[in-house]
Each structure stands twice: as structure tokens, then as C-alpha cells.
Amino acid sequence: MAPCPTARDARPYRGGAAGVRALPGDDSVTATGRGPPMWRLGGTPRPTARDACPCRTTRDKFSILNSQFSIRLLICVVEENIIQHMKKYDVIVVGAGVVGCAVARSLTRYNLNVAVLEAGSDVAEGASKANSAIVHAGFDAKPGTNKAKFNVLGNRMFEDVCRELRVPFRRNGSLVLAFGEEEEKALADLAARAATNGVPVEIIGQDDLRAREPNVSPEATAALWAPTGGICCPYELTFRMAENAAANGAEFSFDAKVVGLRRKQAEGAWEVECADGRTFSARAVVNCAGIHSDELNNLVSATKYSIQARRGEYLMLDKDEDGTFSATMFQVPSKMGKGILVSPTVDGTVIVGPTAEDIPDKEDRATTYAGLEKAVAGARRTYPKLPLGKVITEFSGLRAHETTVGDFILGEAPDAPLFFNAVGVESPGLTSAPAIGEFLAGEVSARLGASRKNPSLISKDVSWWPKTRELPPDELADLVAREPAFGRVVCRCESVTEGEIRAAIRARVGARTLDGVKRRTRSGMGRCQGGFCTPRVIEILGAELGQPPEAFLLSRKTAPKGLMGGARCGAADAIADELIDVLVIGAGPAGLAAACAAKEDGAERVLVLERDDAPGGILQQCIHNGFGLHRFKEELTGPEYAQRYVDMAKALGIPVVCGTMVLGIEKGAPIRVTAMSPRGGLRIYQTKALVLAMGCRERPRGALMTPGTRPAGVYTAGTVQRLVNMDGIMPGKRVVILGSGDIGLIMARRLTFSGAKVLACIEIMKKSSGLMRNVVQCLNDYDIPLLLRHTVTDVEGVEHVTGVKVSEVDDDLKPIPGTETHYDCDTLVLSCGLIPENELTRKAGVEMDPQTRGPKVDAAMATSVPGIFAGGNVVRVYDLVDWVSRDSAIAGRSAARYAREFVSPGM
Amino acid sequence: MKMICINCPKGCELDVEKTPDGEVRVTGHTCPRGEAYGKAEFVNPTRMVTGLVRVAGMRKPLPVKTRTAVPKAKISEVLFALSQTTVQLPVVIGDVVIPAVAGTGVDVVATANYA
Q1: Which residue(s) pair with A661 in the sheet?
Q2: Closest of A23, A556, A512 to residue A252, by C-alpha
């Protein structure tokens, strides 16, 4: 590293530089996903704003000087001097939520130097990341208010803005449900209000409602239909607004909490002071500080405002629920807000919530039992069959409710020249954001006398990158051939590739945290909630940003500085294009056993596809002993057991293609399987018979509905197992384990062996769900208490877990008040059950068994679809791998038999 | 002395006692291995230890095990020995990583192939 004076935290993101670049032709692209054919992942990762010393940029600019140390040093000193002086801008926007980013983007349309200061470590860290994601039609805002005006204006702008920014938006329409006569009257009032606001609506009867939305409660008697209502992705919108603002010169500084604001009359400028001592100067300041916007205003203006934090708790349902409702389902609004809604999202999940509760602490984003229960009860009015088993996560957001005016306060403060407010922007703030941005940018530029930029000089770049899950097969194949990183799937639930994650990190306002990657790519947002992808994402973050991977586990915030990270590699073997006899998905103990049995039974062309970089499946990380007593009549460890099968497959000449993710299965004769790998690109395998052996995944925290904050330090046991046993990373020192599944028990011992203190293992049921032998040799041997009939009732900590509360439960498994005990811990490990992983199975049209959550199979392990067989934990969760291999071998033999009798329809 | 057999998932509840003539008697077992476990656990409890050792030049650790069970009282010494060990590649399953670990006479061996 360059031995130069560093100015930590001083360098903002440079708007002009580009990490991810679209090549010429970018301006012609549209939001429908057709990217420029030659899109490329930019060359090198960018230094972080926080760890960069100014000379890095200088070095980039004058790379020819790279070896000329003295000149470099000189330039560093010069830049250092500049930085020690106050940074001067025309406009400083405080807050990088959706409103701040919209304002910044609109401001860059004028000839103005713009900076954005954000207290958090990323854009969209406040209400913009936790809201209903609804683009409101505007029928319920009180006529004449800013809320009504900007809602309607913003709603009209959404198509264009989302097309320009290339973010998803759907006008799915909104329905407000009335339950009985009383509420039908309220609908009529809403319709009248809508007419005044200029919003098209229509009242529909029960039959029409049921025809449109078959899953709606039969108790709903009528509804207000507002076709202009829509849904979007709020954090993606915010992030792309920031990218486009940065492309047009706006500079972003994070961890920059504004604490001081002074008008320097002589200079005609505002001096802005941050908590860490950084100071900035600007001719104008725009207050978009969301929940804290009252505090900022009250620093400079005698017109005082007061923001009340109004918490809303939400639940998110799995993609299985996609299509349950086509419109956003509201109920008749109350004084506290628009009530609890059930809505599809642009990502295919279903969102439920929010509650509305005024709370004293502006940072309290914890979920609560009471809140989640209220959200569920409210949602069940609309959707009586709401399946709790489909909940994948819960979260809460804080509305910035202004109590003195009760409306959006927009514009220059009366007694603070060139200080502009966007105070009290709660719902419909997301909808209004583009219009607020235009309005405030207009006001600011008029007061500063700034001219509009020549449109040809305004960049349309938004650091776009292809989303592989949305690409048509031919384009995906082209992309992977050019950029192999887009062929390596990292997040399997949401199908996010390494290329997308690298692009998200290399963007102008790039991801610097696990959460930053998550919100930009959806990696970790699916049903396993990061269980599988977290170890991989931190590895990529580490490699891109030059830090050790574990640094990214420490906190929700930016990782500290550190040493170099590692690199990855992976390979796919070439395989034949001919018709395969038996294709097996998964090279764990189930898949390999099926493949070996099929081959031994006479199937000639047997092929195994594996998503990991090596065969063996989850056994690779199960380094403890206890495997193989039945199958091999000796006690083996997981890797040893796996190796036996890897060797057998090798001896039988069965190719195992690693690093390959199956994306789809098309039934028929032959069956067609689409798979992707970094080296092989996108290919279609044709097979006579197919064996599904994808294994299972763990239940994440979201599925347990454990209330509390959402800090770093909560992992499923399998994730911890992978981190400790394969990546050499210890996630914490003081650990509480929730659930007594076998992996949890095994990890209690492993973490103890590795130097951690395991405080307790908490089990809600009357007996351990894991094997008794594991209770004895993993808990009892090390005096780790097993608390039966107890559960975790609160998770504490903002950035990282600081403790948990544990309560006894009654016979209905409800926590008993007054039985709470507190544990100081830095890690909560969840071992609360495994679920067969059947995304592909369902897509293939295989009939499922609601009990096992796997496919229905007969004695030959045949599914309901001819030619498709299944074996191992994908069928049901086994307690012993020996039985996995035994039953999966049956599937393999059945598949071989099917292949022998196969007659191609064309012959 | 009551104990739960850890040989297999059945988890039989054993009752082990010393008869007046000095013989150790096990009841409650359902197989010969259970009886042997009960006796051993009464006289000298032992455990197989599985763990990790560092690999030179790699972040990923190597999984290892004691070839046979070691006395329970020796587990922490075995773990300490593991923490002090770095292996060089290549390694194959069964390679001795630490001979006769912690004075037990039992070798620590590799349980994975690392090329």
C-alpha cells in the first residue's frame, strides 16, 4: 500500500469514475431488460470511500506515474491539503434515502456541484429499505395537501423514471376492500376523494371482486378499484437513482452523520459538520434526513417540527405464494395509516403488513410478537388462508410522521435562506419521491440561479448489469460465454450469480456490506435467507475490496480494514452432447449413490450435475464421525463417507460436472434439463431418466418469526458449520443455540472445540429434536445446558447481536410472561429443522407431498412424472446418511430400468 | 450409573453398576456394542475426536480425526495439539497428521483428500 498520508473517511465517491461500465450504445437501452449486446463487467474493483487514501484515485488517473514513488507522494500531499480544507459544493443533500437520491439526481440536471451526505453506510438504509413498496394511486390523501399533490404527480412519473433507471415497476392496480355496509360507505367517501385528487377509481361489487381475486376473503363485500396503483422495488429504485446521480457528478459520502449546520453569512454558504469531524460547505442544503429531518430543521429554523417514529412491521411470504393476488389488497384506511395490506411484489414474493405503532426510539427497528401477530391477524381479514409456513422473513420500518403539520413539508425554510426541507415524508413518500426531487431541484436551482444542463451532456448511465434470472436463454448463453462469472450461481434461491455480485460491488455507489450486496442483487433474500450464499458472498466482498471475508460478518455496517482476500476457481468438465440414460442432479451422498446404482444396473451414459465446486454435498462440511456404520460397517467422518462415493463414481467412470446449476427441468421424452456453469455456459441436457437429489436446506430465522432486531451474528447451524469447517472462520465467541437439531448439537461441540463459549441450547419442545447420542456427546460432555420448553423471545443488538432473551413456553408453545432470562452473546445459531429443497421439482410439475414437503414417490422412488425419480433428503429429511444412500440407490436403479425401456417418441 | 449409549441413533438407556465381586454389569442394552460401551464408559470413558488443522498456504482447514477413541480426559490436550499443527499438501485420507497424539498412542489422521 502506498506510504502516503491518508485521509480516512474523507474521500467521497467520485461521480465521474465508473467501475461498471456500459460500452457505447448504452443510451439506447430500455428498461425491458434488453441490454447492450456487449455489456461487460468493469475491470477492477473500486476502493471503498472509507478505506481509500486519496492517492489511490490519483494513482488511477496517473497510472504512468505508478512506479515513480516521489511524484506520487507529492500528489498525495497536494490532495491531502485540498482535503484538509473544507470541501465546497453548490448543494449538499442530507440523506441518501429515496427522497435524497431523487433530489440529488434531479439536481444533477442543473449546472450544480452536488454532494450527498448519509449517516448510514449505504443508500436506502432508513424507510427506503423497509416499506410496502407500493406506488400509491393517490385516492386517499387529503385533497389540497402536499401528500395528495405529490402522490398524484409522482405516480404519473413512475413509468418514465423506472424506464430511465431500468428498475422494475408494475401497475398492478390497487383494491380497497370493504367488509360490510359501514365500510362500503367509507369506500364511497374514498371515491369522492379520488375524484377531487384526479385519480381514476371504480367501485366494484363482490362478484366482480371474487372474479378478479379468487383468494380474497368471502367476507369482503365490495372494493374500490384504482388501476393506477403499482408496485416497485424501493431499494433498487434508490440505488439506481444514486448511480445515475453519481454518473452525473454527484458525490456520495457515507457514515457522515450531520451534527452541525451554520450559515456563514459573509461567504453566503452553509457549513455542514459531521459527527466524525468532517466538514463541508455548500451554498444550499436540502434536508432529506427522513426520520431525523425534524432535528436538522430545528438546528437552523425557528419553525420547529417534530417527527414521531411510527413503526410498521411486515412479513414476507415465499415465492410459492406468487399469484395469490394480482392487485395490491388494501383495507379501509384508518387515522394511523393505510392499514394492513397484502400485495404481490415485483420480485414474486408476497408482502404482508404494516402495523402502525408510535414508538419513542427513532432507531428501534425490532420486530415484536405483538406486532407480527397483529400483522397476521389483519392480513387474514383479506386473506383468510394466509399460510404461516410460507413466511420467509419479517422486518420493520419507521415512518417519519410529522406531528405539527401532518403533511410533507417541502421547500425553503422561511427563516433559513437556502435551507430546503423535505420533512415528514412518510407514505406516500416512495410514490412522491420523483416529483419531490423535481420540485426541490427546481426551487434550489432557481434560488441559486443555476441553468439547466444541455440534455446531451446528461448521462443516462445507471451502472446497469444483467440479471441472469431474467435473461432469455440465448442472451444468457452469450453473456456467460463472454463473462464466465455470470455462469456461477452464488445465491441459489434467487439465482444470483457471482458476476452480478461483483458488478454490484464495482458500481459507482457500490455495495460495501453483505446487506449492500443483498439489496442490490437479491442474493440472500430468498427462502433460505442467506444460509447457503453468505460464506460465498463474503468471500467475493473480501476479494473485491481487499479485506478478509470474515470482516463482513462483523456488522451490518462497513467492514473494517484488513488484509488481502482469496480468489476462487471452479471448473466444468466437458461432457457428451448425446442422449443421456440417467442424469442425476446433485453430487451429495444421495446423488452419487443413485448414479453408482444406475451405472451398476446397466445404464451406460450416467451423468451427475453439481452446483458446488466439488462433489460430496453437505458431507464435506460434516467433519464429525458417526457416518457409515450401516452402509460400510465402520464409523466414518462426513468427508470420508463422501469420498467413498466419489471414488466409486470415478471407478465406474461416471462424470461429475461441478460448478453447474440446474435452472429448469422440462418433462417429456426425453426430459430436457437446462443448466448453467461458468465454463460450459448455458446448456441443455437431454436424458431418458432423471434422478432428483438436491438435498435439503435449513429453516431460517424468518421462518421461525423470532422477534427482535435484525443484527449480524444470526446464522443457521449449517452456515456456521461451513464457515468454521471449510472456510476457517469463527463467527463468534459467546454463542446461544436455538433449536436442538443434530447440526446444532454438533456445532455446539465444534464451537466449544474452537474456543467459543456455548451458553445454552434452547429447545421449544419437550425433548431434543436431535439424536440422544448427540445430546450426550455434544452437550452433556461439555456441560452445555439444554433448556427444554424454552425459546428465544427477543434478539438484541443493532449492528451485531449483543444478547438474546429466553423464555419458558406453555403447552401451546407460547412464551410465559415473567420467565425471561437474558444471555449476553455475540452469536445466535439456529438449528430448527430442515426442509427438502424442491424448487426444481415443483417447476417440473411433480406432485408434492405436503407432509414431507418433498415429491410424492412410490416404492421405486418414482415421482408422479414419468422418468423422474428422487432420492435422499429432497424426498424427506433423513436422520442418517446411510439410509439416504440406500433409498437413493433404489431411485438410481429404477431410473436405469426406465432408461432401458425408454422408447423415443420419434422412433 | 445411568447413561445413554451413543453407539447408534437408538440411544438405549443403560444402567451400569459394579457387582460386589468387582464385575461391571450392564443392563438396558439391546446389542453387544451397547454392552461394551457401557463397560468402557464406566471404567474409562473414551471419545473419538474430530477436528481441524491448518494447511500451509491455504485458508481452508483440513479435517482430521483420532484413528480410534481417546480417553475423555485427554480431549483438551488433543485439541491443543491440533491447534499447534500445520500440514503441507498433498494429503490423502488416512495420512498420519500427528503420531500418538498427547501421549495417548493414538494417531491423528487426515479425513479428506487435499491435492
Answers
A1: A676
A2: A512
A290 Cβ contact partners less than 8 Å away, ≥ 6 residues apart:
A95, A97, A99, A126, A127, A128, A400, A425
**Cα torsion for A628, A634, A638, A643, to the nearest 10°?**
-90
* Closest CA of chain B from A774, distance in Å: 7
Sign of the alpha-carbon torsion through A398, A404, A406, A410: negative
A438, three cell numbers:
423535481
> Cell 480431549 appears where?
B75
Please provide residue A767's backbone torsions phi and psi, each rounded to the nearest 5 degrees: -140, 160
Q: Which three cell numbers stand for residue B56?
A: 500451509
B8/A637 touch (CB, cutoff 8 Å), yes or no: no
Q: Are A816 and A810 in contact, with CB atoms under 8 Å apart?
A: yes
Of A588, A623, A642, nearest to B63 by C-alpha is: A623
From the number of C-beta atoms within 10 Å of its C-beta (0-12, 13-18, 19+), residue A65 rates as: middle
Handedness of CA A504, A510, A514, A517 (dihedral sign): negative
How much is the average pLDDT of A396-413? 95
C-alpha cell at position A491: 445465491
pLDDT in tens, A164-198: 999 999 999 999 999 999 999 999 999 999 999 99
Give the best residue of B65, B92, B106 to mutate against chain A (max A CB count within 10 A): B65
CA A449 → CA A91, A110, A437, A453, distances in Å?
12, 10, 18, 13
> What are the pLDDT digits (tens) for A205-216?
999 999 999 999
Alpha carbons A743 and A834: distance in angstroms, whole number: 10
Give the distance from residue B79's alpha carbon to the nearest chain A alpha carbon, in angstroms. Answer: 7
Q: Which residue has the cell 383495507?
A: A331
- For residues A257 and A419, the answer to whether their CB atoms sit within 8 Å is no
- Measuring CA to CA, which residue among B53, B115, B112 is closest to residue A639? B112
Contact A728 B79 (CB under 8 A): no
User: Max CA-CA distance within chain A?
Assistant: 92
Half-sphere exposure of A151 (CA within 13 A, CB side): 28
Residue with cell 448453467: A676
Ranges assigned E (strand) in A265-335: 269-274, 279-287, 307-317, 328-331
Q: Which residues of A18-43 are buried (b: 16+ CB within 10 A; e: fewer)?
A: bbbbbeeebeebebeeebbeebebbe
Beta-bridge mates of residue A828: A714, A736
Q: Are A835 and A849 in contact (CB under 8 A)?
A: no
Q: Write out pLDDT tens, residues A297-313.
A: 999 999 999 999 999 99
